[in-house]
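Reply to dn_fold:

You asked what the input looked like. This is it:
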Amino acid sequence: MDPLLEEEYLQLAANHPEILCSDAPIEILKESASEAEPTRYLEEFFATGYTAWLSKKHGRRVRLPKEMINRAILVLWFRASLLNTSRMMDQTNSDDDLPFFSDEGLY
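and this is what came back:
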């Protein structure tokens, strides 16, 4: 992915953590589906969005142990892969109306 686009998506994750799965950037979904595990960039992207989403949800900055953030990264990355498959098949996904950076109900 282009470095400028990567930075743009990190800003999106930090500033708009409430985006819905249906609005997730296709480039992120494609990159998630193309790797056997999250890349360092995807780890940073999902960690940024997840912590921003938690802060917005609780109305304050939330500090979590690295282990919890790592688990959230994995489930958000996996969901992004599934969303990519749904888009490729031109199908709706049951998570389309859920916040993209939320891990609620994914465990």
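Residues 66-88 form the longest helix (23 residues).
Hope that clears it up.
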